[in-house]
Write a structure and sequence with these properties.
The chain is an all-alpha fold. Helix 2 crosses helix 4. The longest helix has 40 residues. The chain is globular, with a radius of gyration of 20 Å.
Length: 193
Amino acid sequence: MLQGTGFMVLLELFTTFFKIGMFTFGGGYAMIPIIENICVEERKWITHEEMMNLTVVAESTPGPIAINLATYIGYQKHKLLGSVIATLGMVLPSFIIIYLISIFLDNFLEITIVSNALKGIKIAVGILIVDASYKMFKKMSKKPLPLLIFTASFVVMMLTNILTINFSSIYLMLIMAFISLFAFTINKRRATK
């Protein structure tokens, strides 16, 4: 059994991510600014730079981005046990809410108040996602290659959505990763010469 500061860190990880999971609607992208605000600015568990890197890794790995972020931040705070506790804290509220809804309410989404509330939440979620994107763009390196990758990714995703082309964002990430690795290799060879 953990005692002292180890137990307190785990408790703080659990309660922090439980609150984030309980009071954030709209999925992982809507949670990014809230996770950043709490973990970077309030608790100072990680830096802004680490948050950017963790967000990229969390997006690139399988699973929901918010849960991946909780897992990585938990790991940085208290290794394997921290990652398990933070992930549990993030997942448990959704599980409890969905479980209770499934038990007590048959046609939950057909309730007028719930339906109208969810319409309002969709707008707020869109704003949270735009806010997270804007903050990440401001912190992004303004060198030509990152700007080119950002612009190309944005244009490709907008065109695929507007023209309803079936193009997976996974392919886009792989292409941009290949371009980045290629540029890194070229720059490394120039530096060695």
